[in-house]
Specification:
- A two-stranded antiparallel ribbon has the order 1-2.
- The longest helix is centred in the middle third of the chain and has 19 residues.
- It is mostly helical.
- The termini are far apart.
Length: 218
């Protein structure tokens, strides 16, 4: 379906058009962005941030497996999927897991999802984090169906000590794999988001922070 990859590179395809789907359709992409920014993306961000249950918030299979606990399709994974679909189109690189990372927008999508996760953490500081459960799909390092939790190694991402004064990785064992428990505070990695930090500084409580954020996404 896509042009063969070569040393000379291959064009990124977003909403590809034509009989061979060999070129991007910029008009369709722009229309999708305008439509979704005022619609499904905005609605999904609101739904995700008001979901206080980690299991419901974290993956889109939870409402299907436990509809009593998770009545709405308001998960971070669902928002992630909407961004891939809206920016790549049904036949673009972003719509196909094996090659989606070849599109530079892949990095922006996942940075956006990480930002929403940071906002959710600030809005729900007492919520559970990375609850234990069975691996739905599995990876090379984690067999499908095996038990995973906040302390499961996130292969292939290694922890490392930093030379930065009071470094974000201080106390981490070089050579060990990172875990979700180690990464609960994203600032330990030495970065944050300007608007997230501004809301955090201005808010008088988690509820106040959530209200300020939702006012932007109304």
């Amino acid at each position: 379906m896509f042009p063969r990859f070569s040393r000379a590179g291959t064009p990124t395809l977003r909403w590809p058009a034509g009989p061979a789907f060999a070129s991007s359709n910029v008009r369709a992409l722009n229309a999708s962005v305008l439509r979704n920014s005022a619609g499904r993306w905005r609605e999904s961000v609101r739904a995700v941030l008001t979901q206080s249950d980690w299991r419901c918030f974290s993956n889109h299979e939870a409402p299907l497996r436990d509809p009593q606990r998770c009545p709405a399709l308001a998960s971070l994974e669902f928002l992630h999927d909407l961004l891939h679909q809206g920016l790549g189109g049904p036949r673009g690189h972003l719509a196909h897991t094996g090659i989606s990372a070849f599109d530079p927008l892949f990095l922006l999508i996942h940075s956006s999802i990480d930002r929403v996760l940071a906002l959710w953490q600030l809005a729900h500081p007492g919520a559970a984090w990375a609850e234990a459960g069975a691996a739905a799909m599995g990876t090379r390092a984690v067999p499908k169906g095996s038990l995973v939790d906040a302390h499961t190694p996130l292969v292939p991402f290694y922890a490392h000590n930093s030379s930065h004064p009071g470094g974000p990785e201080a106390g981490w064992s070089t050579g060990a794999f990172l875990t979700s428990a180690m990464l609960r505070n994203w600032r330990r990695l030495g970065y944050s988001y300007l608007d997230v930090d501004a809301w955090d500084a201005a808010a008088s409580s988690p509820a106040d922070l959530l209200a300020r954020v939702l006012a932007v996404y109304r």
